[in-house]
Amino acid sequence: MAQIRIRDAGIFLGVSDDTVRRYVDSGLLSSTKDASGRSVVDGLELAELARRNSVLPADPSDVGRSARNRFVGLVTAVTMDTVMAQVELQCGPHRVVSLMSSEAVRELGLEPGSVAVAVVKATTVMIETPHGASE
Length: 135
Prior knowledge:
The protein is of the alpha+beta class and 135 residues long. It has four helices and eight strands; from the N terminus they run E-H-H-E-E-H-E-E-E-H-E-E. Helix content is 27%, strand content 37%. It has a five-stranded antiparallel sheet with strand order 6-5-4-7-8. Strands 1-3-2 form a three-stranded antiparallel sheet.
């Protein structure tokens, strides 16, 4: 399951690091330590809280492109068969759904709680992950 650092969790929720720590202290979010000893929260738990709070974070990628409709968020659901998949993101107050190949879902490492960016150009929605998101 995806683990999100406290600092990044604050960005996705639109609150400070201290507020995220208060959420952990009050039981609103649970926290563990990653391999480096840093406090992290479960990505899926954070995605559910983000859905309830609906705050849109800034785009973390440094890629230039012509598409202007970009939605940064957390994956909330992946429905997949052998060929095709449906991926849902909660991007602030926006729910974005994309249909793509199951192969693309596996290559991007998309799973509930992971960070992704929906790029909308005309009627096509493509999902991207920021550099280092799966590390």
